[in-house]
Hints:
- By secondary structure, this protein is α/β, with parallel strands linked by helices.
- It has a domain at 63-86 and 114-254: P-loop containing nucleotide triphosphate hydrolases (Rossmann fold, 3-Layer(aba) Sandwich), CATH 3.40.50.
- Helix content is 30%, strand content 23%.
- The chain has 7 helices and 10 strands.
- The protein has helices at 75-82, 105-113, 130-139, 147-160, 176-188, 206-223, 234-237; strands spanning 33-42, 49-59, 64-68, 90-95, 98-99, 115-118, 194-198, 226-230, 242-247, 250-254.
- The longest helix is centred in the last third of the chain and has 18 residues, at 206-223.
- The site of adenosine-5'-triphosphate has 11 residues, from helix 1.
Amino acid sequence: MTAPTPARTEGAGALPANPAPAEAGQAVAPGLIEISGIDYAYGTGKARKQVLFGNDLRLEAGEFVVLTGPSGSGKTTLLSLIGALRSIQTGSIEVMSYRLAGLSQRRMEEVRREIGFIFQDHNLFDALTAYDTLRLAMRLCRERYTRRDFETRPTRLIESLDIAEQTHAKPKSMSTGQKQRVAIARALINDPKLILADEPTAALDKNRADHVIALLKARVVEQGATIFMVTHDPRIFAFADRVVEMVDGRISRDR
Ligand SMILES: Nc1ncnc2c1ncn2[C@@H]1O[C@H](COP(=O)(O)OP(=O)(O)OP(=O)(O)O)[C@@H](O)[C@H]1O
Ligand SMILES: [Mg+2]
């Protein structure tokens, strides 16, 4: 029987993650994402506004989970906590066996390097072409790649997202949908085991949205990637293993 992998944390003496209740004699691996008791507030003093309240959620490796819910309900905030883009205030999150609470900025960067992010507002660098955006992202994992990979991988991914004409274009001359696809390519270029996506198809027409979802779903099926995706698009729900709903800062439904 194998023991659950201890959580990777700062400093010595950290306790391993609590395993979920197990059948007698059965080893239980920790989920890929374990969220427990997550609150979050923006601002301090009189300006303090709590936007997340006591959230618990577990995602298994290889799951495609959709997070939906009204605007302002806290979806992006929760995603940014899972992605180590914001520090945890109350509660705990484990991601890929990193325990995030109390991690230093340097260690948070390490966690982020293993995640493919697709942001709600693209976050592309104005000065970089699509091709250079992908090459820069590959440098985060440069030890994996040959010189030839740096030539071929960006081109292949750009072609598969149907933005070949934008290869040497910069964001200011791209449409919103083209920028969105460059951002998707950037998130996928290093074959992340975890993809966090915030409305990745919001700017795409139906055909392109279907294509992107099929491409993401293939990552789950073929590479065992885990996807946690915020979307309002009910058509995407059919592709997901689970749909989780957030209302007023609380995960209210897990169906
Ligand atoms: N940087 C910030 N400073 C202060 N308040 C913020 C900040 N970011 C978000 N909020 C507030 O936190 C709440 C949750 O915002 P969040 O962006 O997480 O919602 P959301 O569910 O992603 O909404 P949407 O569907 O519109 O993207 C909102 O009331 C919002 O006004
Ligand atoms: Mg949002």
